């Protein structure tokens, strides 16, 4: 059987709902991992995606976070949040808050995590340390599934560009987050858990970027980054028949600043 899995930082599922439904109808993924919902779980458009044949599990508070999984293959064994997920002391909070940044589910023959890794903000900011702690918690959380015989993958917005080739100009990011050695080391540690980076094939350009800032004509100038990633275990990676970034979904007005990443599996 062929299974199509995708990931997309939707940048507000409410604001992008028409775009999301249009894309689902055209691309027809069997499983879609969403990030940055910006809506509470109860406000997720369950009925709208159900009309296209998708079950959905969501995890959100309405702030700048939130994740979901949509599936046509069934949706079982849902887990919301990493088992040992660290909390973050928000600027307006008295106690650390465990943010809705991860959700897992079994969808037919595959199991997936949809993750929205913390941004990190600035290298000397507490959010940067939180980001590193969060990535380590993710590594520990996936160990069992990664070692299993079932195809398994972690997909989402990792807010880390794995290599210098994954940004349009390394010099433009000097001293900034997303490209530091510590972030990349924390991301690379997923490989010690048995996961591998599924790099999409380039289409229009040499590098398959997934994110372009709204400002300074970054998208038409292709000043992008590859930060929306798929990390799969051996059974998952061996089943990959194709992977690409759907740049068309980034075009036009009212789009997310990220494009969907699609992975096809031959199982």
UniProtKB/TrEMBL annotation:
Cofactor: Mg(2+)
Source taxon at top rank: Bacteria
Keywords: Hydrolase, Magnesium, Metal-binding
Gene3D superfamilies: Endonuclease/exonuclease/phosphatase
InterPro entries associated with the record: AP_endonuc_1, AP_endonuclease_F1_BS, Endo/exonu/phosph_ase_sf, Endo/exonuclease/phosphatase, ExoIII-like
Record-linked PROSITE patterns: AP_NUCLEASE_F1_1, AP_NUCLEASE_F1_4
Leader sequence segment: none
Residue ranges occupied by any Endonuclease/exonuclease/phosphatase domain in the UniProt entry: 6-258
Pfam family, one: Exo_endo_phos
Similarity comment: Belongs to the DNA repair enzymes AP/ExoA family.
Protein name as it appears in the record: Exodeoxyribonuclease III
Species of the source: Kitasatospora cystarginea
